[in-house]
């Protein structure tokens, strides 16, 4: 038998993170006394170093390795960088929160690193099995993270719920993959695309499989009708973990959608676009309406996240119009820009919840934001930036995210979709405005000074400024998204 | 012509100045915040003066143009320029900002820096609306200007402020998001341009024109506000602090009307011709019906708010008769209304600061304790009623003349405003100012101080000056209005 040594170079970052995961595990086992600090430091170092490795190995070329199961391209590199970035910030925000509750165990950081690795594998997979392995790696780590605060009944319940539903979704996805394999005879994305293009695939089996693939993707994105877990898990998990769930995995799920649907099944875009259309509209409507009724800010942000992911899908489904692929790049890059913008806003929103929490107190109720302008005008302004940005009001990044997606939808001729999205945005604006109202127009209930470490304050301030600055100058991030996609197509 | 970017200065001096004011922080530094805000407002006004002195009357082209790419990915440009239609509003806006900062000087004692900053930032954003020549840039300023006013109403407003602030925000947001879809459609149709001037030349079929016209009608109609989407305005006015009401009436309402001239008429000439009767009908309803509604108000601010809606009905009426006299009359009316309604709200603010009531029934015989104030209030009330020799007369008279040329019955209905307007304004004046002294609070009222005297005096000069000699205003707009009408007369089909 002929054994070929694969080219490890394109996967250097993944290998590095995998090795570091083992290093962190061993180091924190042997250095018990400083395990917590060490785990945190090593994790941040891992993320930063991985970012450097990704930047240095980035060459703008598309390269394959591990028998074409692994792809290295610019889109993957860009998303990986965003994933490191959001994980690093999420861990930074969460650190004092975890320490206050005595759950900043080294395992927490180990799971975060493993989860990062899972997401990296998802982003760079060129094969359904690789995709699945990455997904499971991410999901298993996340299940454990959600239930990490094991003394809390709610956290355990959320973990259980997430696990059961997540396992079901993985099953659906796997089933869909097997159908696609049955129809096309391959699991490699380009091979699938080729088989569909040659019309050698059994189309009814393929479509059958497609439904399950879309279901799996929808679950991971947390969109209607696979959204049930989102509010419960967001609320049940400790805020530091919610922060993680609400950010980087959205990027990984976006990559999953792009790889499976666009890389693999672009030829039958008409089919999955129709499915996504229902999903997107239902998510935008349900997310925005349900968010109004919430009194818990984490639940409200969960429903708002559902509607945001629906909005992002609008970009994905506007790529092909009656066989015309002219708009594809524009539409997909607008969806990517939306996903990245959402992650930046989401980080800041949960960061604010952490900022207001302290030992023995969870700032989970919306009312906990009452009168924030009196307690801290600057952080009230940061939260206001986030809320207006999420509502899509200029000059904030959320406006340009909405603009680019709507632009793609209008260009594709779906005026009614744009109208629905717009009307629901007005309804959505109500609950964002309510937060601003509570912070600025009401008197504070809780006048305890905000206790948060300097690093959290500084980073959160930077996060808020970034939301405004990117809204003033969105060009760079937008063209990065477009360029990364273009170079990878 | 010099290369100094006056329009950018007009936009960014107040915004950056506002951020500096914000940086003065807590109320311990309130005197500094006030002084700095006044300085910024004055500088912000001074930089707009060259826009008038350097304005070329002979051309209808955009002047003081600045263009540089902003978001090249969507071909969005930072494209500014003013013509005879918009230049006066930039100056008016900067001017009103000074008065508003002055009006909040003593009254606002809490969160002074935030108050002043909100007004300055809003002023800059509104200058951006009037000078933007790029669709997205216009939209961005249009939407962003909601934020400061939302906060102003919500933080410093009256008892029902939360409802009013949210209603105001959502109404406008709904209209403007429909406009966004229309802008994106135009972007697509024009082959990837957001330039408003390109859109003026863009051929469009009648059906898309109609749809876009309705999108714009909702967006700008809410902002004007036109009947039947006017209900947010009385709420917003009643709850807003005096300064907020002044800016809303003097500038905020002009944004929608300006949108009609910049977008609806030149981009959609055929739909505008076709649907002019609809808009004229809505305008007449606003003029007549809302006039009667104003008559029965018990709250002074509400009364002036309804009177604003009626006056703005005159403006949209003037626009859609599509003749030069009508449009120029409407523009004059807009500027005059900026002065007059601003002054009316300031007068009511003066009373409210002393009595903490806006109910007409709580007053009576104010002239005995506040003679100077009564004189000013008299002048502004007369202007609001459209008395000749005040600015209120000029615009109304021009629009009515234009209506006579257009259709006698429209002119007849429009002219009823001269009677109804006089009735509600002067009746309110009579009940508040004249008669026996109503109660001991009124008897103890102090007359206006030097600061209030200065603010009202400046406005009185503007109102009289414009009423006696409106030529400096009309000469600026003349070339642009002629060109606009020539453009509207040419079908795009």
From TrEMBL, chain A:
GO cellular component: endomembrane system; plasma membrane
Keyword Translocase found: yes
Keywords: Cell membrane, Membrane, NAD, Quinone, Translocase, Transmembrane, Transmembrane helix, Transport, Ubiquinone
GO MF term set: NADH dehydrogenase (quinone) (non-electrogenic) activity; NADH dehydrogenase (ubiquinone) activity; quinone binding
Enzyme class, UniProt record, top EC level: translocase
Catalyzed reactions per annotation: a quinone + NADH + 5 H(+)(in) = a quinol + NAD(+) + 4 H(+)(out)
Limits of the NADH:quinone oxidoreductase/Mrp antiporter transmembrane domain: 125-428
Entry superkingdom: Bacteria
EC number(s) given by UniProt: 7.1.1.-
Compartment(s) where it occurs, according to its Swiss-Prot or TrEMBL record: Cell membrane; Endomembrane system; Membrane
Protein name stated in the entry: NADH-quinone oxidoreductase subunit N
Organism of origin: Parazoarcus communis SWub3 = DSM 12120
TrEMBL record, chain B:
Provenance organism: Parazoarcus communis SWub3 = DSM 12120
InterPro entries (UniProt xref): NADH_Q_OxRdtase_chainM/4 (IPR010227), NADH_UbQ_OxRdtase (IPR003918), ND/Mrp_TM (IPR001750)
Domain NADH:quinone oxidoreductase/Mrp antiporter transmembrane: 134-417
Name used for this protein in its record: NADH-quinone oxidoreductase subunit M
Lipid bilayer topology: Multi-pass membrane protein
Primary location class: membrane
UniProt entry keywords in alphabetical sequence: Membrane, Transmembrane, Transmembrane helix
TM segment ranges: 6-23, 35-55, 85-105, 112-130, 136-156, 168-188, 208-229, 241-263, 275-296, 303-322, 334-352, 373-394, 406-429, 450-471
One of the record's GO molecular function terms: ubiquinone binding
Compartmental location: Endomembrane system; Membrane
Family per similarity comment: Belongs to the complex I subunit 4 family.
GO cellular component, one term: endomembrane system
GO biological process: ATP synthesis coupled electron transport; electron transport coupled proton transport
């Amino acid at each position: 038998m002929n054994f070929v040594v694969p080219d490890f170079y394109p996967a250097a970052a993944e290998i590095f993170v995998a090795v570091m995961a083992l290093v962190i595990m061993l180091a924190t086992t042997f250095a018990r006394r400083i395990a917590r600090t060490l785990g945190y430091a090593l994790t941040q170092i891992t993320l930063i170093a991985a970012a450097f490795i990704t930047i240095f190995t980035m060459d703008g070329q598309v390269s394959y390795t591990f028998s074409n199961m692994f792809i290295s391209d610019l889109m993957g590199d860009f998303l990986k960088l965003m994933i490191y970035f959001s994980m690093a910030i999420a861990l930074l925000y969460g650190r004092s929160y975890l320490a206050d509750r005595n759950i900043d165990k080294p395992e927490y950081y180990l799971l975060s690193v493993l989860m990062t690795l899972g997401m990296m594998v998802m982003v760079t997979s060129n094969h359904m099995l690789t995709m699945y392995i990455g997904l499971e790696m991410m999901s298993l780590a996340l299940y454990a993270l959600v239930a990490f605060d094991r003394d809390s009944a709610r956290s355990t319940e959320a973990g259980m719920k997430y696990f059961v539903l997540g396992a079901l979704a993985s099953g659906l996805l796997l089933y869909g993959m097997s159908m696609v394999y049955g129809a096309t005879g391959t699991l490699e994305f380009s091979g699938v695309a080729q088989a569909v293009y040659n019309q050698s695939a059994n189309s009814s089996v393929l479509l059958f499989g497609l439904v399950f693939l879309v279901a799996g993707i929808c679950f991971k994105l947390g969109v209607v009708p696979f959204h049930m877990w989102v509010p419960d898990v967001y609320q049940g998990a400790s805020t530091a973990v919610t922060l993680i769930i609400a950010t980087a995995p959205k990027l990984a799920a976006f990559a999953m959608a792009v790889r499976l649907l666009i890389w693999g099944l672009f030829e039958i875009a008409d089919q999955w676009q129709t499915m996504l259309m229902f999903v997107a509209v239902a998510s935008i409507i349900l997310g925005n309406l349900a968010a109004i009724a919430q009194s818990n800010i984490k639940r409200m942000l969960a429903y708002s996240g559902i509607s945001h992911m629906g909005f992002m899908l609008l970009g994905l489904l506007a790529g092909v119009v009656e066989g015309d692929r002219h708009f594809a790049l524009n539409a997909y890059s607008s969806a990517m820009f939306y996903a990245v913008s959402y992650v930046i806003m989401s980080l800041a929103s949960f960061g604010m919840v952490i900022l207001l929490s302290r030992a023995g107190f969870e700032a989970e109720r919306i009312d906990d934001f009452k009168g924030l302008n009196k307690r801290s005008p600057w952080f009230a302004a940061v939260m206001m930036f986030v809320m207006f940005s999420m509502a899509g009001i200029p000059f904030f990044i959320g406006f340009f995210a909405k603009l680019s997606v709507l632009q793609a939808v209008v260009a594709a001729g779906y005026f009614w979709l744009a109208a629905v999205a717009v009307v629901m945005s007005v309804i959505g604006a109500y609950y964002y405005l309510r937060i601003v109202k509570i912070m600025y127009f009401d008197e504070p209930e809780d006048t305890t000074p905000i206790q948060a470490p300097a690093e959290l304050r500084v980073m959160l301030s930077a996060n808020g400024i970034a939301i405004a600055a990117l809204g003033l100058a969105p060009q760079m991030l937008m063209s990065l998204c477009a360029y990364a996609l273009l170079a990878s197509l | 012509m010099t290369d100094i970017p006056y329009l950018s200065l007009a936009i960014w001096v107040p915004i950056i100045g506002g951020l500096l004011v914000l940086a003065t922080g807590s109320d311990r530094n309130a005197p500094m915040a006030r002084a700095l805000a006044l300085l910024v407002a004055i500088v912000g006004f001074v930089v707009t003066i060259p826009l008038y002195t350097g304005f070329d009357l002979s051309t209808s082209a955009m002047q003081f143009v600045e263009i540089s790419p902003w978001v090249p990915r969507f071909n969005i440009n930072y494209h500014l320029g003013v013509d005879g239609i918009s230049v006066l509003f930039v100056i008016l806006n900067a001017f009103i900002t000074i008065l508003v900062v002055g009006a909040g000087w003593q009254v606002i004692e809490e969160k002074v820096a935030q108050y002043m900053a909100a007004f300055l930032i809003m002023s800059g954003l509104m200058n951006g609306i009037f000078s933007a020549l790029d669709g997205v840039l216009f939209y961005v300023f249009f939407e962003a200007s909601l934020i400061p006013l939302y906060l102003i109403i919500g933080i410093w407003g009256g008892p029902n402020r939360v409802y009013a602030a949210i209603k105001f925000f959502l109404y406008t947001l709904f209209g403007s998001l429909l406009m966004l879809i229309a802008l994106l459609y135009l972007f697509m149709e024009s082959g990837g341009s957001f330039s408003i001037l390109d859109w003026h030349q863009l051929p469009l079929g009648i059906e898309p024109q109609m749809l876009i016209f309705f999108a714009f009608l909702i967006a700008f109609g809410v902002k004007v506000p036109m009947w039947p989407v006017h209900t947010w305005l009385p709420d917003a006015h009643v709850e807003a602090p005096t300064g907020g009401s002044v800016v809303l009436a003097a500038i905020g309402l002009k944004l929608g009307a300006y949108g009609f001239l910049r977008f609806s008429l030149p981009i959609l000439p055929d739909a505008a011709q076709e649907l002019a009767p609809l808009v004229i009908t809505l305008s007449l309803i606003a003029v007549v019906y809302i006039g009667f509604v104003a008559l029965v108000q018990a709250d002074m601010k509400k009364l002036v708010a309804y009177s604003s809606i009626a006056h703005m009905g005159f403006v949209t009426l003037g626009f859609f008769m599509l003749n030069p006299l009508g449009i120029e009359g409407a523009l004059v009316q807009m500027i005059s209304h900026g002065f007059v309604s601003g002054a009316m709200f300031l007068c009511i603010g003066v009373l409210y600061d002393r009595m903490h009531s806006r109910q007409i029934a709580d007053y009576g015989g104010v002239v005995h304790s506040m003679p100077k104030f009564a004189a000013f209030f008299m002048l502004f009330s007369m202007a609001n009623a459209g008395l000749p020799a005040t600015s209120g007369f000029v615009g109304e008279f021009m629009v009515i003349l234009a209506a006579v040329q257009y259709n006698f019955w429209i002119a007849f209905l429009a002219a009823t405003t001269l009677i109804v307007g006089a009735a509600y304004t002067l009746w309110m004046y009579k009940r508040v100012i004249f008669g026996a002294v109503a109660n001991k609070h009124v008897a103890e009222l102090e007359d206006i101080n030097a600061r209030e005297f200065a603010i009202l005096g400046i406005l009185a000069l503007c109102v009289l000056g414009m009423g006696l000699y409106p030529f400096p205003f009309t000469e600026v707009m003349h070339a642009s209005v002629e060109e606009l009408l020539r453009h509207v007369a040419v079908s795009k089909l």
